[in-house]
Amino acid sequence: MSNKVAVLVAGSWGTALASVLAANHPEVVLWSRNPDQVKEINEQHTNNRYLPDAQLPVNLKATSDMGEAVSGAKAVVIVAPSKAMRQVARDLSAHWQKDMLVIHATKGFETETLKRMSTVIAEELGCEEGRIVVMSGPSHAEEVVKRCPTTVVVASLTESEAVAAQDLFMNSDFRVYTNRDMVGVELAGALKNIIALGAGMSDGLGFGDNAKAALLTRGLAEITRIGVEMGANPLTFSGLAGVGDLVATATSRHSRNWRAGSMLGQGKNLDEVLDSMGMVVEGVRTTQAAHDISKKYGVQMPIADQLYHVLFLNRNPRIAVEALMGRDPKTEMETMKLETWEQWHR
């Protein structure tokens, strides 16, 4: 079997994962549409737009030809922004072979359809969703590329696919756990970006640690509530993809979502924030999707709802926080559907 691995899209996270793979496999090819970026990676072994000052492994090669990147690969790792995922998967379908392992590490939804990324990929490749693996967990690209100790989770409806992905990535710096709850892992990875936006906004407003701790805690309850309604195991949200990724994304200056939220809290509007970031802020699109998902499933998501009003309806961030604090009194422990709770506690 070939030892080649292909990684599609050379953003910060795609580049960082490619560097992990290059420590494990002799041939790793990173695909980018940008010829200048390809030249920089191949000649200088850097990707300074996305990972300034990071030195990439010399056996990591780049190409702007997707067919060349994928040809002969035993695995393909897709790290496209959520808004580009369907097109990237569609382009991949011309080169993908059924014996190739497919992993995605994108945290978001297709906002037009509210579909998870694994569903989008499976539709475009014409395969069962159980063939797709999702990777998630607390993992800043800036630290991964420097080989800082990192732990993530890979999930698939098919156990053998998850184990294969674990074997592909696992090394002394990058520890990988498996999980069968693909729905929960995908939902946790996507929805925590909303709470990270809120945490950044709280910090930008100067509200302190008490407010941020409350946002993270109630945000996790919100994520779990909608996740269980959509078929996820509630225990997934207390794991790496849930609370682990939430803490990393909502408390670190590496986090684009936290930085974007902080700028919103300081009074900048959404267009100003996105222009200054220069990179995708997945939490913005995810907030839009979550607003529609909460209506579809009839589940309250008050934090996501207030962020939706800030991002898309020009609500003042301070007014949004006041609205959250002024909600009717609640009990802390949420009530789940009894049959769903019993399903996971037999």
TrEMBL record:
Entry's Gene Ontology molecular function annotations: glycerol-3-phosphate dehydrogenase (NAD+) activity; glycerol-3-phosphate dehydrogenase (NADP+) activity; NAD binding
* Keyword entries, A-Z: Cytoplasm, Lipid biosynthesis, Lipid metabolism, NAD, NADP, Nucleotide-binding, Oxidoreductase, Phospholipid biosynthesis, Phospholipid metabolism, Signal
Main location (coarse class): cytoplasm
Question: What residues does NAD(+) bind to?
Answer: A141, R256
Amino-acid positions noted as binding NADPH in the UniProt annotation, renumbered to this chain: S12, W13, R33, Y50, K107, A141, R256, V280, E282
Catalytic positions? K192
- What protein is this chain from? Glycerol-3-phosphate dehydrogenase [NAD(P)+]
Organism of derivation: Paenibacillus rhizosphaerae
Q: Which gene encodes it?
A: gpsA
